[in-house]
Write a structure and sequence with these properties.
Layout lengths: L1 H5 L2 H23 L6 E3 L6 E3 L7 H12 L7 H6 L10 H4 L34 H13 L2 E4 L3 E2 L5 E2 L3 E6 L4 E9 L1 H23 L3 E8 L22 E9 L4 E3 L8 H13 L6 E3 L11 E4 L9 E2 L1
Parallel strand pairs: 7-8, 11-13
Antiparallel strand pairs: 1-2, 3-6, 4-5, 6-7, 8-9, 9-10, 9-12, 11-12
Helix pairs in contact: 6-7, 7-8
Length: 312
């Protein structure tokens, strides 16, 4: 009876013992032969066990980050915000250089000289009327050599709002000496006369072109013939020009005066250009008219109420 009650406990004890033995044998087989690395320090016979480096990843990552660490670049916005130390702002004169024709060169084909104040009336082409601009365009096409000048105002009628200094025609091949101060309309009429009458007539009579035109008077604030009590001359408006001599390309000088008895070519030329000039000017006076015009031609664009021309 007692045997029957105690028999169930024995198998459990055996199982536990078997399991313990099995675990002991497994541990002896798997871990007993594993040797720990040792390091020899000095000449000592003792060895110091060195623990294996279980985790090297953090150190590697740290070194990798150090290699890739780059000094931060300066902020681009800070570079633009900071003004340059050695750069000085340009002055107005340096920003807008102006080329001036005041150097004395007369080879200016219809281009105005540099102006100091482009807003000022009389210094800017934009302040001119349409007729003034159109007149200058025609001068350029004809090859008139001229320069713009400052407005002239000597009081009364002695003024030119947009004066020109004219020094040549035919793109400089024909010179005007000395340079004449005229308004644009008078310059245009004279340039047309030179091209359409004077040059062809000189080639017909002398087989030579015109080299130089010598003028005796252009702008001048005075009365007619400088006589006291007379009306103001068209010269006071830059609206008249006096011609005293013409030099041809062959060196021949044609003086504007009453020719001699046998000066046939000179008489023919002077008579021809004098009569044809009435198609270009409203007033043409020359030798034989009076004592004041015995040695030059007087051309002007006087406006008369009757609209008539005076050619004498």
């Amino acid at each position: 009876m007692s045997f029957a009650l105690s028999s169930p406990k024995r198998p459990r004890r055996l199982e536990i013992i078997v399991l313990l033995a099995l675990a002991t044998s497994l541990s002896a087989c798997g871990m007993g032969d594993v040797r720990r690395p040792s390091a020899d320090v000095g000449n000592s016979q003792d060895t110091i066990a060195v623990q294996p480096q279980q985790d090297v990843q953090p150190q590697a990552e740290e070194n990798y980050q150090q290699v890739l660490t780059v000094a931060p670049a300066p902020d681009a916005t800070e570079e633009y915000e900071q003004p340059a130390e050695n750069i000085q702002p340009l002055s107005r004169a340096e920003e807008l250089p102006v080329e001036s024709n005041e150097s004395g060169s007369e080879e200016s084909y219809g281009y105005p000289a540099g102006v100091s104040d482009p807003i000022s009336r009389g210094e800017s082409a934009f302040a001119m009327s349409g007729s003034e601009v159109s007149c200058r365009t025609q001068l350029k096409r004809l090859g008139v050599v001229f320069q713009e000048r400052q407005p002239i105002n000597d009081g009364g009628v002695c003024r030119i709002d947009h004066p020109l200094k004219v020094s040549g025609f035919a793109s400089g091949r024909i010179k005007l000496k000395p340079a004449a101060t005229l308004n644009c309309q008078m310059t245009l009429a004279f340039a047309k006369w030179v091209k359409g009458d004077l040059v062809p007539s000189s080639r017909l009579r002398y087989l030579s072109g015109v080299n130089t035109i010598h003028q005796a008077s252009s702008y001048s604030c005075r009365t007619m013939s400088n006589q006291r009590g007379r009306a103001m001359s068209e010269h006071s408006k830059g609206n008249a020009l006096d011609i005293a001599k013409v030099t041809l390309n062959n060196g021949k000088d044609i003086k504007v005066q009453k020719p001699g008895l046998f000066a046939f070519r000179q008489r023919g030329l002077l008579n021809s250009v004098r009569s044809d000039a009435c198609s270009y000017f409203t007033t043409v006076l020359g030798p034989g008219y009076d004592i004041f015009h015995r040695d030059h031609f007087h051309f002007d664009l006087m406006e008369r109420r009757s609209g008539k021309r005076s050619c004498r």
